[in-house]
Amino acid sequence: MGSVRVAIDIGGTFTDVCALDEVSGKMQVAKTPTTPDPIDGFMTGLTAVGVNLSDIALLSHGTTVATNALITRRLPRVAMICTRGFRDVIEIRRANKEDLWDAYKDVARPYIPRRDRLAVSERIDAAGVVVTKLDQAEALELARILRRRQVAAVAVCFMNAFMNGENERAMRDILLSELPGVPVSISSEVLPEIFEHERFSTTVVNAVLSPVAGAYVERLSERLRAGGYASDLLLLHSGGGVMTPSSVRDFAGRIAGSGIAAGAIASRHIAGLCGFANSIGLDMGGTSCDVSLAYEGQSRVTKDWGIEFGYPIRFPSIEVLTIGAGGGSLARIEDGALKNGPQSAGAHPGPACYGGGNTVPTNTDANIVLGRLGTGLAGGSIKLDAKLAEQAVRVGVAEQLGVSVPQAADAIIRVANANMADAVRLISISRGYDPRDFALVAFGGAGALHGAALARELSIPVVIIPTNPGITSALGCLLVDLQHDFAESYLRPAEATDPADLQRRFATLEATAAERLLHEGVAMADMVMQRSVDMMYQGQWRSLSVPVPPQITTMEALVTSFHEQHEREYNFRRDDAPVSLFRLNLKATGVVPKAALATSEPGGAMPQPASRRSVYFDNATPHDTPVYWRSELPAGAVIEGPAIIDQLDATSVLPPGASMTVDRFGNLVMRVGS
Fold it and tell me: Is this structure's pTM higher than 0.90?
């Protein structure tokens, strides 16, 4: 067994690799192009950091394979078996539309067409009592039909199965007998919750991804074993944990949000290293910006998400808001107003300064005009044309608004920052959190350029820029544990709930969770169980999750916690209103040992600036600004703004009136002032 931990995060454009030596704490990073077969890019990334598979102790992987399969609809033929009379639940949905006023825009078609949605006679009532047992003859006939159709997977979705999965399990046994090797997902195990559309939709997503994710994981695992990797491949899932390949085959839908979780995990961890339990993550790349929030060291988790409108995926997911604001976002004048994004120049042709033929100004072009971004990227290997950037800003914005080119560039950046500030407000203020109580972790290729201005816009006092902003998401894959989520419907008033009954039910969930973690090689001492219960005011259907202690002796404490959380979330509470329980939740974590990041003791001489250039910060006169090379800054170094800090994968902007300190982990901690 080696001593190197490796994380690989595969995105649509680049594959980010992060290799951490457990002994020295030193980190090596690489960024390579994503290939048509992601596994080829995966192996190329390992070569780029010079790590042999036999030297790897742990390999974590974030992937967009499942996400892309749903977006592109490149899915195998999958069938659905449901209770007779309910085959169209996933097509009727909630009868809502993404754009209420567009009568001609249709919702995307279901992942399983109607001809492959078959019905069988069975029925469970709302109390979980078997009214009609599964018709065995019909079930066998359906299995024979699906065998002839050569389906790759099957989703079994029966009415009220969340209360009693007996008929679903019987149907699964028949399918597994008649269709050997075909994965079967049943809703009572995938998502045992009320609301049939959400339960059916999640089970269908799980089923259609089972062959895709299963085949990918199997091929990748074989390549790794052949190369000498002896441990389990760990795959990041939407809830912020990792899964083993065996779990992916059963719950493939959980990695549908694999790619978006890594950055949120990394930003939370980095903020914790800097002493901030409350943090907002700002992951700004070339096309989009992902915003996340952590409060008291815990990321916000949601179950209201999906890849396409109308088809919810109710697995727990770290809450991340994505907007079209990146380095390549296009700025233009529409109806006399300046707009920025969500359209993007993409990688090809890219911003105007790339010289690829685009003439519309982008955020990257505006930052070059303002002097905040230099004319060389990746250590000078990519050259940017300042004249093309200036021409694009002049023709696209300045001449149409009748302002100077620097004023136009400043306006482009201000609009981009306003769009990102709105996203931050949505995930913080609208949830009852005050941004002034948080630190902003700015990363991605463009996050460090905009972090200080965005923090001032929102009165956030501190900005943290990680050591390697461009590969921070890959680092997040190294910081996660094995994690599984379990749930059980529990519909009853709080006043009629017996604490002893709650205790017994949680104990049953914990026994199931422990069995799964033991199967994955986790010792009992490394297991952490976190309980919560979803509660709501009677008559409502939207609920809030309330933490539950290891021992439940009274319901009053849970009800009080619900009132307090409801007040923070919605700014009101009704202490006199009756409260109901909706669902029991358990997050089971198998703690994976983590190598510590390398640290440096403060000291060392402050280097001289590598260069100086004229930079606009306030739409007035340019400042003669020093430019430092980040790798030369020692721990403990203090820089007063204005300053620019360059490195291979990002550029950090320190405006006038702000100061910056290099901490012992190499993070830049910026106090932005007013």
Answer: no
